[in-house]
Write a structure and sequence with these properties.
CATH superfamily of the largest domain: Hypothetical protein af1432
Shape: globular
Number of domains: 2
Mean pLDDT: 85
CATH class of the largest domain: Mainly Alpha
CATH architecture of the largest domain: Orthogonal Bundle
Structural class: mainly alpha
Low-confidence stretches: none
């Protein structure tokens, strides 16, 4: 009976989320940025002019460009310089990711702190890119986007299922359930599946859908195991180092399969690897908190 009730909730909520008028549409600025980037005559100034229409987006891009995790020796103070330093393709990834996150919206509630969610997401994006570069994996642009969007199912739950969101948080605190267990109990599906549904609705690359859908269990990833493992490792590291105090990552369950996938050695080596990033992560957090 319990399993059937959960299945019924799952089917009902998937149908609700699949409604064309329920989830947000792809932001228009993404189309404008793509149009400029695909023009072989376009300059950094042309792209900067489009991005500058959204000053909030400009602020976030400059924060990323000045991240200590990027290691750029000069201060980046203009959007045109950021485009030159970071390159058109990475700027595109940043614009897509930030614009999609903004389109989700969602206000603060008693149990959802939007700023902390943003801090965690941006921290994840910049850190995942840096770790991908440090480990020699040529997916750093995708790592940024995947890191930023990995938890996008959480604000969707808060926005469209506020009653269930409250139930989930209370079940974790009062019953000792994991967030995944509490999500399944309340909704029939978890934030990974909800995020994947949204990524697919936006017709984003399949790699992002897989990472968003498996970032807590990269061993279940099929075609994009390395990128999914990179996001999982970064998520675990932010939790282990207490970066950002993100509620949904408390008692984060580590999938040890990533040690083999990313060639990170044994657990002792991995512990040292995590600690080696503590100073950089803290510097990054301080910059983000000042935005």
């Amino acid at each position: 009976m319990i399993e059937q009730a959960i299945q019924n909730k799952r089917e009902k909520n998937i149908k609700l989320l699949g409604n064309a008028y329920t989830l947000p549409a792809l932001p228009f600025i993404i189309e404008e940025v793509n149009r400029v980037i695909e023009d072989p005559r376009a300059s950094a100034s042309n792209l900067g002019e489009v991005i500058s229409k959204d000053q909030g987006l400009v602020t976030k891009i400059l924060a990323v460009a000045n991240s200590p995790l990027y290691g750029i020796p000069r201060r980046v103070s203009t959007i045109d310089f950021a485009i030159i330093i970071l390159g058109f393709n990475h700027i595109k990834n940043i614009v897509v990711a930030f614009s999609l996150m903004d389109s989700i919206g969602g206000a603060d509630s008693a149990m959802f702190d939007r700023k902390k969610f943003w801090l965690h997401s941006i921290m994840m994006a910049t850190a995942a890119k840096r770790i991908a570069d440090d480990l020699g994996y040529h997916v750093s642009g995708e790592a940024f986007t995947a890191g930023l969007l990995h938890d996008l199912g959480i604000p969707i739950v808060n926005k469209f299922f506020p009653k269930e969101y409250k139930q989930i948080v209370e079940s974790v605190k009062e019953k000792g359930l994991t967030f995944k267990e509490a999500e399944i109990e309340a909704l029939g599906l978890d934030h990974q599946e909800i995020g994947k549904l949204l990524v697919e609705r936006w017709n984003l690359p399949a790699v992002l859908a897989e990472v968003v859908g498996c970032h807590h269990e990269p061993s279940l990833s099929n075609e994009h195991k390395i990128l999914t493992s990179l996001v999982h490792v970064t998520d675990y590291m932010t939790s282990k180092l207490n970066i950002g105090e993100f509620l949904w990552d408390e008692n984060y369950a580590f999938d040890p399969s990533v040690l083999t996938t990313l060639r990170l050695g044994n657990e002792e080596y991995f512990a040292a690897f995590i600690n080696s990033y503590q100073h950089q992560f803290m510097e990054q957090l301080e910059i983000l908190q000042a935005i």
